[in-house]
Design goal:
The chain is about 25% helix and about 25% strand. The protein is of the alpha/beta class and about 230 residues long. The strands form two sheets. A seven-stranded mixed beta sheet has the order 7-8-9-6-2-1-10, with helices on both faces. The protein has a three-stranded mixed beta sheet with strand order 4-3-5, with helices on one face.
Length: about 230
């Protein structure tokens, strides 16, 4: 079982998270660090994937600015999505050469981690054939969009824990005209910390990784050992 460092970053700026991921990807490609799992929360931001369609952004720049929502085009897969407070975001930095050289299997495994996590909170989540993400009764509760560079992953997933779902009005989530939901909307009251702890444990099991404590990426970041 290989090590994977867990970095709990709390509320983290999206641009800073991109810069951190890029640095960690290079270090992982060079074999300077082990695999990483970044768990964090963003302020209000809409992101557009490299294959996304700008027409799925339903609000003008002025409307977004008045709502306090930033916009970023990114190099991840997928279309458009929203991140914000109450949403658990995970960015795994994994070298798939040391797991499986299979991008589809990687995405399915991320879905499995989230499905197992939600089951622990009494939510029966599923996949929908041909679609990416995790769903509850036809409503999307978690989005997934990844980037692979020389077999090292970045970007990842976003799980709606207590997200204010009204912010999804500004987009067509992931380019699909399907509703979204959250753990809170389904009647589950849970903190990001508790959900993150459960998710990290399942991540370790699904990817056969041991998550020891690690030095925080930046001053003030928390650390926790999973057993």
């Amino acid at each position: 079982m290989r090590n994977c460092c867990l970095r709990e970053l709390g509320r983290f700026d999206y641009s800073a998270a991109l810069d951190l991921q890029r640095r960690l990807v290079v270090e992982r490609q060079q074999g300077l660090i082990p695999d990483q799992l970044l768990l964090l929360e963003h302020s209000h931001v809409v992101t557009l994937g490299r294959n996304g369609h700008r027409e799925n952004l339903l609000a003008s720049d002025d409307v977004l600015a008045r709502a306090g929502v930033a916009f970023h085009a990114t190099d991840r897969g997928g279309d458009i999505t929203y991140h914000g407070p109450g949403q658990l975001v995970g960015y795994p930095i994994l070298d798939l050469r040391e797991w499986k050289r299979d991008v589809a299997a990687y995405v399915r495994s991320l879905e499995e981690v989230i499905i197992l996590t939600l089951a622990d909170f009494g939510i029966a989540a599923t996949r929908i054939p041909t679609l990416t993400g995790v769903w509850v009764d036809g409503r999307k509760i978690a989005a997934i969009g990844v980037h692979i560079s020389r077999w090292v992953t970045s970007h990842g997933f976003a799980l709606n824990v207590s997200t204010d779902l009204s912010y999804f009005q500004y987009i067509v989530p992931c380019g699909l005209t399907k509703p979204v939901t959250s753990m809170a909307a389904l009647g589950v009251r849970a903190t990001l910390k508790d959900v993150g702890y459960t998710l990290a444990a399942h991540f370790g099991r699904v990817f056969d990784r041991q998550l020891p404590p690690t030095a925080p990426a930046l001053p003030g970041a928390r650390k926790r050992e999973l057993v």
